[in-house]
Q: What sequence folds into this?
């Protein structure tokens, strides 16, 4: 292993600009003549818009325009879309309601954008916005997904009766019923997977800039996937043809899914820039983000797991109601279906699984992918069922898991996926050792001595990453292919630029991708630069989410590097006057087999461009190759997290006293970065389990719409984390990478709740397990939210 | 934020004059409560009177049996002051529990007590120690000063200049944080000075900071956590919101009071 | 309008501003010092932390006029122009204390202030408590805590002393 190659904890190349304050986030960019947009948002969860009077606002100082849904429609700006088709059990397509960028006729959630004011300064835009008079007729609203399906519930969109978008299922219901009949023990749980607000610390922002001379639009945007944004805004919204729209994602301050989607605000910024003839900038306030960034999770589930006399799982069934909010966001339909139910087999051999999912509209902010997307929800269901099953049957939870682990690979689950490689025993065993599982009883007595309840919780999770084989995704309803692209541009002096369709917003691609190239070409890592996030520079790409950049994005680079090497060998053959077949390439040097003749990398690259040693008929000059990589399978990172807690019974507060994570991510390019990803994921999972959760009142007001009321994990909520890995290589991609971006967020919630319920001795507890929730659970006065 | 005109009075008299002339003007101390409200456009004072240049409003002075702290004294100064740490260590500790280091570098004692946020910490100390709020016009006993959430006995044009805290024999403060805002979900301040025993509670009550006389009576018999065992306060009149029910807050008042007494007598629970 | 004059990163600055201008706006928009970030509107996240007369403050909760006659230091001024990085910056890089980098300037400015007040030997517990006012969504804090402990040690003698004299 070289100091900068694969497997080395290379310090990040991108850090210098961030630690010196020299990064360029969207809000740091200013265009000459730029003006500011401020959105007027609905204060009501559900209301008909009778009229909008903007006369006095338009006359305010500095105001250039006040625009509403009427102008948007007049300019034929199309609706936002959900790009993944799901069909119901009965074969009918999902009921997608229109989602205009500015509400047309009615507002469907608090925060729904009604109008926009564009003014010379932000303060002027805000001042004028207060003068816009919107006359609403308030309608009855519903925020709870269970209530939304009940007869008599307020109807949100005409297309969707009972607010139901689809009633989907997966698996064989009859076979599962039969399996349950044979069971010795059945564990049943009602589970609420709480709604989370992503809260990347950089709020979303957009600058739209229309150039009337060329008829092109440029959009600077906080996005995780600039090309997909361009595609949707061109093809569906119809702002401009693709080649007349450039999308640039500069430095992006965290995404976690929330910056994948195409939102109203960037569409409006572009459109308004053409209308007013000036670049238009919009930057989201945090409280505004609470009402306009897509939220995550929000499932209500009843699940059952059946065991035979020996403790082997014989079947699992689940019925989930998924809250998709007021509109269907970009990928929302796929999250509670193909990214959720397909993972219900966990790490276990479960012969039969059946899952039904109803997706519903409510008068709440739209819900879409948030770190883990569907997989944390599935893991929570499975890992709670196994844990509670073990407790009910009086078995050791670790032992029950081991008994049911998938042992042979490849393994076909009853829910589509084919697990290709893994060793679940190995990660469980290592985690138990590192966590000193054996010593727990002694530590529990110790805690009891100072009046605390101690508990331990395991979560053995699996996820399907490396999204995704395009054909498979297409057959399941995806509107796009999920391959990735790369271009390797070698300069005459031998330095290399990698153009990738992946996008980095904290993952450190500028370092890990360069490591790959440095190792492969034997050139110093400083001589490699990564170009991403600009549709004018980079060929089409699918962006970064679903832990796909390593497994898919880097595989594309490998493919392109293969082509570069092949071409470079041809050049070297001419240069060294040898047969191409005799050229060997190693450590950045080309040599002729069996001789001492060699040429350095830079000699060959220079010759590729000066082209003095070969004729145009023999070889094309230049050294630049591109590749598209379409994965052949998902990848299956898996592992075991163990959480240990102490609960203060008087106050209900939980302290996490130890955390052990052992993950199998396949081949790891940069252990330092991978560990960082695990830490961050765990923090988000712990946040979900202990403190986060959007709370809506019955009539659809968000009760905790700022950091004053929505509790973000702070440094003192978390312990020092023990993180380790085991390794089985991923067989489906050239590097053997599985992906690591979401593991922590997937594993953590179940580990925490298993630990707390172990400590307090009751399963009556939902997330977030706040002190007050744990206290009421201890008082036996606890009620599950959403109880029908 | 709405536009305003900005003034920098040099004396309390000037500030008071400006306040009287402009009914809606606001004093600006550390700005850690006022500016967040103005940023969210929840307040729109047409004039702002910055108090940084006003003389004689900061400083910490120990005289006889009282500690007097100027209104503009910042939280970090109270926290780090050897004089406070010596005379009323719990007051220094309490100041160190307010918000975060950056907030403590700006926020002031006077601002906090004038604002009387129902979840703030200083009001519990004032009431718990039986402090006297000294203004440009008069001296107000803490018992008469706090009149409900965000409401005080201060009259228009009245400016807090300093606060005088009698030195207790024993005192402690237990703060249970709201997980999100980090203000007190419930905070209980207990103090003993001769036969005067006070238990002041912040965060819990729907009318702001209050005293628990039943606890005080019990502690008069014996100043020990044991005296509070089995005692509770009714959930009526407690705040109830997404962060905790009235029952939970009432329960915490009991728990934290016992813990505070234990700490005050030097036998904190583990 | 209000006239202000102050020192920013060692340089004198004079300006005539609307009094409602926040310090963070003044730094970002008037002085184009965009290293100081805005992550919330309720004074909680700490992305905006700068030093005012050597002490950490939230520049989103300070008016620019309140800095009149005072000294401000931002992340851009932490290391001398063209000079080596500040030990705390170096430590964040060495210990992977940042991912997306958005919270990082505020974290580093807070960290330097912690060292000023608490010294060069910081235990994990102290660091975690002191980070009460800084939110990071990416790192899970683990490596930030490590970075601050290491940065604090590296500041021994040199930077911490000069910082205190600020
Ligand atoms: C993130 C954050 C967390 C916080 N956490 C806590 C916490 O945990 N506990 C807590 O107690 N507080 C907390 N606070 C509030 C903080 O303590 C404030 O500093 C304090 O409440 C107000 O003091 P100030 O000097 O900043 O006052 P300002 O904001 O300047 O003023 C507040 C009000 O008091 C008036 N006023 C100011 N000085 C005087 C005076 N001398 N006479 C009369 N009226 C005056 C002003 O006109 C204004 O109406 C927090 C604040 C923030 C931003
Ligand atoms: S921007 Fe200042 S605290 Fe969040
Ligand atoms: S590094 Fe992204 S918020 Fe901290």
A:
């Amino acid at each position: 292993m070289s100091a900068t190659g694969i497997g080395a904890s290379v310090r990040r190349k991108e850090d210098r600009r961030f630690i010196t304050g020299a990064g360029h986030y969207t809000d740091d960019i200013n265009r000459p003549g730029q003006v500011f947009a401020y959105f007027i948002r609905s204060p009501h969860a559900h209301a008909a818009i009778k009229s909008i009077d903007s006369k006095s606002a338009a006359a305010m100082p500095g105001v250039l325009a006040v625009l509403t849904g009427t102008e948007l429609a007049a300019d034929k700006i199309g609706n936002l879309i959900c790009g993944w088709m799901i069909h119901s059990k009965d074969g009918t397509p999902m009921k997608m309601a229109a989602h205009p960028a500015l509400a047309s006729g009615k507002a469907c959630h608090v925060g729904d954008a009604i109008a926009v004011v564009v003014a010379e300064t932000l303060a002027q835009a805000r001042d004028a916005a207060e003068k816009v008079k919107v006359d609403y007729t308030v309608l009855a609203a519903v925020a709870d997904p269970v209530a939304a399906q009940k007869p008599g519930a307020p109807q949100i969109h005409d297309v969707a009766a009972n607010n139901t978008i689809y009633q989907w299922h997966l698996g064989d219901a009859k076979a599962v019923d039969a399996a349950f009949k044979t069971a010795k023990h059945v564990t049943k749980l009602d589970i609420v997977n709480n709604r989370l607000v992503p809260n990347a610390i950089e709020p979303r922002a957009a600058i739209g800039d229309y150039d009337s001379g060329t008829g092109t639009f440029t959009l600077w945007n906080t996005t995780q996937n600039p090309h997909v944004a361009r595609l949707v805004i061109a093809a569906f919204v119809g702002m401009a043809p693709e080649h007349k729209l450039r999308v640039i994602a500069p430095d992006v301050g965290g995404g976690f899914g929330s910056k994948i989607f195409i939102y109203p605000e960037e569409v409006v910024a572009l459109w308004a820039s053409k209308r007013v003839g000036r670049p238009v900038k919009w930057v989201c306030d945090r409280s505004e983000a609470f009402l306009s960034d897509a939220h995550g999770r929000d499932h209500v589930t009843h699940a059952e797991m059946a065991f035979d006399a020996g403790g082997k799982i014989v079947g699992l069934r689940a019925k989930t109601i998924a809250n998709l909010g007021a509109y269907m966001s970009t990928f929302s339909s796929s999250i509670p279906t193909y990214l959720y139910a397909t993972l219900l087999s966990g790490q276990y051999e479960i012969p039969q699984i059946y899952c039904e999912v109803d997706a519903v509209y409510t008068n709440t902010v739209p819900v879409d992918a948030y770190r883990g997307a569907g997989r944390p929800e599935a893991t929570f269901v499975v890992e709670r069922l196994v844990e509670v099953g073990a407790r009910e049957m009086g078995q050791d939870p670790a032992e029950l898991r081991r008994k049911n682990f998938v042992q042979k690979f490849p393994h076909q689950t009853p829910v589509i996926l084919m697990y290709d490689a893994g060793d679940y025993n190995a990660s469980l065993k290592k985690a138990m050792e590192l966590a000193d599982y054996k010593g727990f009883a002694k530590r529990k007595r110790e805690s009891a001595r100072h009046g605390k309840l101690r508990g331990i919780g395991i979560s053995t999770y699996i996820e399907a990453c490396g999204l995704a084989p395009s054909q498979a995704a297409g057959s399941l309803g995806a509107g796009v292919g999920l391959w990735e692209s790369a271009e390797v541009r070698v300069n005459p002096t031998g330095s290399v630029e990698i153009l990738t369709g992946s996008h980095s917003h904290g993952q450190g691609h500028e370092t890990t991708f360069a490591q790959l190239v440095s190792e492969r070409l034997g050139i110093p890592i400083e001589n490699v630069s990564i170009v991403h996030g600009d549709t004018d520079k980079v060929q089409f790409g699918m962006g970064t989410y679903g832990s796909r950049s390593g497994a898919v994005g880097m595989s594309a680079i490998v493919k392109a590097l293969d082509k570069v090497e092949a071409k470079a060998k041809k050049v070297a053959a001419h240069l060294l006057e040898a047969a191409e077949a005799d050229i060997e390439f190693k450590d950045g040097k080309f040599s002729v087999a069996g001789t001492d003749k060699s040429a350095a990398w830079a000699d060959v690259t220079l010759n590729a461009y000066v082209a003095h040693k070969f004729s145009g008929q023999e070889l094309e000059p230049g050294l630049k190759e591109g590749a598209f990589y379409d994965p052949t399978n998902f990848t299956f990172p898996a592992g075991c997290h163990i959480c240990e807690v102490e609960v203060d019974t008087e106050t209900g507060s939980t302290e996490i006293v130890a955390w052990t994570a052992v993950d199998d991510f396949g081949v790891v390019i940069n252990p330092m970065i991978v560990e960082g990803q695990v830490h961050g994921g765990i923090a988000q999972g712990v946040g979900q389990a202990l403190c986060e959760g959007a709370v809506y009142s019955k009539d659809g007001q968000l009760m905790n719409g700022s950091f004053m009321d929505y509790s973000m994990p702070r440094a003192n909520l978390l312990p020092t984390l023990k993180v380790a890995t085991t390794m089985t290589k991923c067989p489906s991609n050239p590097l053997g990478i599985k992906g690591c971006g979401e593991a922590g967020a997937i594993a953590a919630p179940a580990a925490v709740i298993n630990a707390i319920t172990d400590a307090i001795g009751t399963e009556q507890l939902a997330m977030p397990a706040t002190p007050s929730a744990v206290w009421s659970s201890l008082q036996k006065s606890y009620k599950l939210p959403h109880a029908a | 934020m709405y536009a305003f005109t900005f003034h920098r009075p040099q004396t309390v008299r000037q500030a008071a004059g400006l306040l009287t002339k402009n009914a809606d003007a606001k004093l600006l101390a550390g700005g850690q409560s006022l500016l967040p409200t103005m940023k969210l456009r929840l307040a729109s004072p047409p004039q702002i009177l910055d108090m940084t240049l006003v003389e004689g409003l900061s400083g910490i002075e120990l005289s006889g049996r009282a500690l007097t702290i100027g209104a503009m004294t910042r939280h970090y100064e109270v926290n780090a002051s050897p004089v406070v740490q010596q005379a009323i260590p719990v007051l220094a500790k309490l100041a160190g529990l307010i918000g975060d280091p950056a907030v403590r570098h700006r926020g002031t004692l006077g601002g906090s007590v004038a604002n009387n946020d129902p979840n703030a910490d200083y009001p519990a100390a004032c009431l718990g120690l039986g402090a006297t709020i000294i203004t440009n016009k008069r001296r107000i006993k803490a018992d008469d000063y706090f009149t409900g959430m965000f409401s005080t006995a201060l009259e228009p044009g009245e400016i807090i200049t300093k606060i005088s805290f009698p030195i207790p024999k024993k005192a402690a403060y237990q703060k249970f944080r709201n997980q999100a805002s980090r203000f007190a979900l419930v905070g209980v301040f207990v103090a003993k000075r001769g036969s005067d025993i006070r238990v002041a509670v912040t965060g819990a009550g729907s009318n702001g900071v209050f005293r628990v006389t039943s606890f005080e009576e019990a502690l008069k018999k014996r100043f020990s956590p044991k005296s509070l065992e089995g005692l509770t306060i009714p959930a009526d009149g407690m705040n109830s919101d997404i962060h905790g029910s009235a029952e939970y807050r009432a329960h915490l008042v009991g728990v934290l009071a016992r813990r505070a007494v234990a700490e005050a007598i030097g036998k904190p629970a583990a | 309008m209000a006239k202000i004059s102050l020192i920013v990163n060692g340089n004198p600055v004079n300006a005539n501003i609307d009094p409602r201008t926040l310090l963070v706006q003044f730094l970002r928009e008037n002085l184009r010092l965009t290293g100081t970030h805005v992550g919330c509107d309720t004074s909680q996240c700490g992305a905006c932390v700068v030093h005012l007369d050597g002490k950490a403050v939230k520049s989103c909760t300070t008016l620019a006029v309140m800095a009149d006659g005072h000294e401000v230091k931002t992340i851009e001024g932490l290391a001398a122009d063209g000079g080596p990085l500040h030990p705390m910056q170096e430590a964040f890089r060495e210990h992977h204390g940042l991912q997306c980098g958005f919270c990082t300037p505020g974290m580093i400015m807070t960290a330097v202030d912690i060292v000023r007040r608490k010294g060069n030997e910081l235990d994990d517990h102290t660091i975690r408590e002191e980070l009460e006012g800084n939110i990071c969504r990416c790192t899970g804090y683990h490596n930030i805590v490590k970075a601050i402990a290491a940065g604090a040690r590296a500041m021994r003698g040199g930077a911490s002393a000069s910082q205190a004299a600020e």
